């Protein structure tokens, strides 16, 4: 009996001790008790890095977009609008040098934002010692690529703070998407004194960074939540209406739905299993993305049937993507080409609106082409091919659908291999696949961000499709400073890619989401950050 | 006893060294690199960054560097969360996992013990059957199914407890409960089986014949003997549960460390893989050590034979 009592009391002491110990560690966010205009959002991942020179992921870029500001920022239509730049830049006669005047603006600690902050941040990103995984986004700048590869000095790079308020950018050559590019996170300014003060710990916590955007990051509980507060030092603070934004990190789609349904948050992504029950609600909307999913066909192997263009084309038009989107994946539209509908063409129109191709499902034609192709190769029957893709549930659904369609429409036997992401990359790199399912999202708002990856010899062209005419057009466009002509060349290049079926585009993805109807003017972006809160407000009385 | 303890401690160090070494070489067999933007990064820049992190060095050199850091207690910085120290990340998340898990183990053990006792003492009655049924449920229903059901009914439908997040004590109840069921099941089964055996033993008859009160017979003579197997299993079970569960932590959006066990491997986050493995191993070997000592308290014969060694 004595021992029994001892045991019980030990348990009791343990329980009490653990309660006391943990009492201080509960998260206890601001949600609910904050005054003023407050909204509560969800993020699906812990932001890995808020050091803009080193960030690579959308969670980090989204935060940075709301707490910092570059020369331009994305507006309500995802077009670049003036940020730290006071006015449009002046251009040199050769169109390669842009000179920006900065507006009078302060960092959150009251110090002025200077041209030096831009020069410092950009050169820091390019510096090989920083080991930035996005420095290549700056390759349009003169000598940036060389400096990043250790083949040029920092002072040779085409970024120069002439004085506190004047920034000069010298490009390798003029590009039509410069303004869009400058909205990208890697181009944000940084304060040398703050970066150097915190070293490796820079931007790991809100007190180890400064802000020049509409909000400041006031709190960051790792793996749990973070909070934005309105930045009183922001140059256009009168436009900013929200006082507080609480963001909860919830990695599971069902959990996020639960939080939304109990009113804990005002926004959530909608997992595929919840789309049918939510798609008719007024809060339902499709968050834009620039991701295109496509199948690469291995043309390296000596005996590959995909060396035959007719067989490639049969795969491209032999899959009923409309049915797949309507009935199975439900998060996108069939790809009409390779370049996403979010991408600009010229100042008025999107690339897709101007495109010269449109992929249409045609099983009869596909079967005909497939049989002709086999005949040309001297085969009676196609060998079984292996399709490699990710092991996520969405990718598995896609793989299964493609397998069924190819068997049904072409009589092609397909074996599915679904592997973890890193393994898929490795297999792609080594050419260890027949068909490879992958996706690509734009780094900058231009068709070149898509089309250059399938030129001959480009590392991401893993099926090794090669077409001389295509290569030439892309190369010409890369060097072309006549923007109308350049666009024409890119449109033509995409047409060749689709006609020759270099790859088989599948679908353009978007993210089904729900948002509380009282939240107005929260602007969503397909490229770079997910959203901007600068203009967002809460409608009263709802 | 001291000699025995020292010997056990040196075994622990050797065990940890073997675990760290095997983990190190195994993880380098994983395809890909720890880089985050690997997909888009130009090949020559990728090589340059790998070089900078020393990831292109021959494996034995990397191993020596790794061991060097480890001896000094430096687990390194995470590759996926740039700059954040692995030890710091574990230190931040572990209290959450440990609290949820600890509560589950305490609750689960107490309930399991009671159920097991009742089942053994009332063998063949409805109470015994009920306890068996609870145990079967506990073993066969995965905690994530229970977690999801709890979140939906208790959280969303009835609104009794918060659906998720780490905000107040109430946030810990559902996740702990979801994790506790398996503990209840395992402990109650062990206790019941052992108790049934012990209650039939000769010395129990002796104890009863001596005229000892029933309570003394059950608790002092029977339960004490029946506890040994339960404690043996409880040690590793506790470590498993307090180091967090990926699914439970995701279902309830908790900032624990359960996720690191899985994500680090998916992302090839080498420092996190070794860090979390070593952390887990230290817990396991320590718990085994503690359990050994507990045996001694519960059954003095074990202590005696240990001392003789």
Automatic annotation (TrEMBL), chain B:
This is ABC transporter permease. It is a multi-pass membrane protein. The chain crosses the membrane at residues 9-30, 98-121, 133-153, 173-191, 226-252, 272-298. It is found in: Cell membrane. Residues 94-295 form the ABC transmembrane type-1 domain. GO terms for biological process: transmembrane transport. Belongs to the binding-protein-dependent transport system permease family. GO terms for cellular component: plasma membrane. Pfam families: BPD_transp_1 (PF00528), BPD_transp_1_N (PF19300). Keywords: Cell membrane, Membrane, Transmembrane, Transmembrane helix, Transport.
């Amino acid at each position: 009996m004595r021992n029994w009592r001892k045991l019980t009391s030990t348990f009791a002491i343990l329980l009490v001790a653990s309660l006391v110990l943990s009492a201080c560690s509960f998260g206890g966010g601001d949600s609910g008790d904050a005054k003023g205009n407050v909204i509560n959002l969800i993020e699906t991942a812990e932001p890995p890095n808020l050091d803009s020179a080193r960030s690579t992921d959308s969670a980090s870029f989204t935060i940075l977009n709301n707490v910092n500001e570059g020369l331009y920022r994305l507006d309500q239509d995802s077009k670049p609008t003036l940020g730290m730049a006071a006015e449009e830049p002046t251009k040199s006669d050769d169109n390669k040098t842009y000179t920006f005047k900065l507006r009078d603006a302060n960092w959150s600690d009251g110090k002025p934002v200077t041209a030096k902050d831009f020069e410092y941040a950009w050169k820091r990103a390019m510096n090989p010692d920083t080991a930035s995984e996005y420095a290549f986004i700056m390759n349009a700048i003169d000598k940036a690529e060389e400096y990043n590869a250790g083949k040029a000095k920092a002072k040779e790079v085409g970024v120069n703070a002439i004085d506190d308020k004047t920034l000069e950018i010298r490009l390798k050559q003029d590009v039509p998407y410069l303004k869009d590019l400058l909205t990208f996170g890697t181009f944000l300014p940084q304060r040398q004194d703050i970066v150097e003060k915190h070293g490796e710990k820079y931007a790991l916590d809100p007190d180890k960074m400064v802000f020049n955007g509409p909000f400041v990051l006031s709190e960051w509980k790792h793996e749990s939540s973070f909070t934005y507060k309105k930045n009183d030092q922001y140059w256009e603070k009168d436009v900013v209406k929200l006082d507080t934004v609480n963001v909860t990190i919830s990695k599971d789609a069902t959990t996020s739905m639960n939080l939304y349904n109990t009113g804990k948050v005002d926004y959530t992504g909608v997992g595929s299993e919840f789309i049918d029950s939510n798609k008719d609600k007024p809060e339902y909307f499709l968050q834009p993305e620039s991701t295109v999913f496509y199948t690469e066909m291995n043309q390296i192997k000596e005996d590959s049937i995909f060396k035959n263009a007719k067989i490639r084309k049969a795969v491209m038009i032999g899959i009923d993507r409309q049915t797949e989107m309507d009935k199975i994946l439900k998060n996108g539209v069939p790809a009409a080409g390779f370049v996403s509908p979010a991408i600009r063409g010229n100042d008025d129109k999107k690339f897709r609106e101007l495109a010269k191709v449109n992929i249409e499902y045609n099983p009869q034609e596909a079967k005909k082409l497939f049989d002709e192709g086999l005949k040309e190769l001297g085969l009676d029957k196609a060998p079984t091919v292996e399709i490699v893709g990710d092991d996520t549930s969405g990718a598995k659904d896609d793989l299964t659908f493609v397998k069924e369609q190819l068997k049904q429409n072409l009589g092609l036997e397909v074996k599915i291999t679904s592997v973890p992401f890193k393994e898929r990359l490795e297999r792609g790199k080594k050419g260890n696949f027949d068909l490879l399912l992958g996706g690509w999202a734009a780094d900058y708002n231009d068709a070149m961000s898509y089309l250059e990856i399938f030129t001959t010899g480009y590392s991401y062209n893993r099926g090794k499709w090669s077409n001389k005419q295509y290569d030439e057009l892309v190369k010409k466009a890369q060097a072309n400073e006549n923007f109308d002509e350049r666009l024409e060349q890119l449109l033509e290049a995409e047409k060749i890619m689709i006609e020759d079926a270099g790859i088989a585009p599948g679908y353009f993805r978007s993210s089904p989401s729900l948002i509380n109807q009282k939240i107005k003017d929260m602007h969503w972006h397909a490229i770079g950050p997910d959203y901007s809160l600068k203009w967002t407000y809460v409608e009263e009385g709802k | 006893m001291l000699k025995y303890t020292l010997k056990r401690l040196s075994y622990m160090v050797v065990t940890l060294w073997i675990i760290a070494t095997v983990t190190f070489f195994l993880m380098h067999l994983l395809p890909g690199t720890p880089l985050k933007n690997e997909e888009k990064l130009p090949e020559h820049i990728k090589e340059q960054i790998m070089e900078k992190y020393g990831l292109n060095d021959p494996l034995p050199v990397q191993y020596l560097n790794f061991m060097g850091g480890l001896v000094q207690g430096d687990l390194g910085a995470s590759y996926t969360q740039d700059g954040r120290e692995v030890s710091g990340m574990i230190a931040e998340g572990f209290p959450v996992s440990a609290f949820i898990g600890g509560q589950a183990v305490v609750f689960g053990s107490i309930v399991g013990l009671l159920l097991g006792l009742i089942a053994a003492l009332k063998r063949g009655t409805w109470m015994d059957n009920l306890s068996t049924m609870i145990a079967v449920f506990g073993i066969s229903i995965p905690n994530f199914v229970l977690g999801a059901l709890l979140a939906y009914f208790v959280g969303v439908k009835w609104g009794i407890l918060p659906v998720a997040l780490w905000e107040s004590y109430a946030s810990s109840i559902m996740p702990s409960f979801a994790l506790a069921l398996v503990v209840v099941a395992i402990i109650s089964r062990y206790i019941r089986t052992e108790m049934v055996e012990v209650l039939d033993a000769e010395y129990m008859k002796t104890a009863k014949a001596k005229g000892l009160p029933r309570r003394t017979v059950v608790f002092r003579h029977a339960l004490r003997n029946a506890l040994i197997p339960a404690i043996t299993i409880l040690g590793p079970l506790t470590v498993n549960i307090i180091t967090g569960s990926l699914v439970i932590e995701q279902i309830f959006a908790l900032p624990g460390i359960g996720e690191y066990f899985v994500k680090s491997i998916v992302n090839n986050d080498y420092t996190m893989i070794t860090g979390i493995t070593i952390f887990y191993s230290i817990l396991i070997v320590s718990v085994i050590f503690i359990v050994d000592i507990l045996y001694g308290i519960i059954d003095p014969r074990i202590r005696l034979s240990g001392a003789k060694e």
